[in-house]
Amino acid sequence: MLFQQSLEKCVAISFHKLTKSNFNIVHNDFNSNGEKLRIVCYLSTPEYYEGGELNLYLMEQLSSPFSSYKLKANTAFAFEMNQQSFHSVNEVKSGDRICLVITYQ
């Protein structure tokens, strides 16, 4: 059990690569497929790319993040896939931001 969630199985593993000028707008990953948890494993060292910070938001304040992270290689960030879990990724200014993304039901 993780995050008060009983996980049944891993349903997807993919690479997520953001290159220069790529970004993700504020969103949540909630869906009706029964996916509950996502783990993002960082593969690029922070010195390898500029920008690309992960931003976390409160549902009541989607205009500015309450926290921002640029994680080291071989670290991970996990979050519940629910309607309140909003996040974004800042524009990558140079280099490549590469992550391994694992999704559980």
Could you walk me through the main structural features you see in this protein, from its secondary elements to its overall organization?
This protein is mainly β. The protein has no helices and 10 strands. The protein has a 4-stranded antiparallel β-sheet, with no helix packed on it. The protein starts with 9 loop residues before the first strand and ends with a strand.
Determine the fraction of residues in helical runs and give it as a percent range.
Answer: under 10%
- Beta content comes to over 45%
Look at the structure and give the mean pLDDT: 94
Count all strands and give the number.
10
How many angstroms does the end-to-end distance come to?
Answer: 12 Å
Q: Output the number of helix runs.
A: 0
Low-confidence stretches: none
Report the C-alpha radius of gyration, rounded.
14 Å
What does the main sheet amount to? Answer: 4 strands, antiparallel
Structural class: mainly beta
Tertiary shape: globular
Strand order of the largest sheet: 1-10-3-7
Order of helices and strands: EEEEEEEEEE
Give a brief rundown of this model.
The chain is mainly beta and 105 residues long.
Name the features.
single chain; 105 residues; mainly beta; four-stranded antiparallel beta sheet; 47% strand; globular
Task: Compile the SSE list and pairings.
Layout (H helix, E strand, L loop, with lengths): L9 E9 L5 E4 L9 E6 L7 E2 L2 E4 L9 E3 L5 E6 L5 E4 L2 E3 L2 E8 L1
Antiparallel strand pairs: 1-10, 2-8, 3-7, 3-10, 4-9, 5-6, 5-8
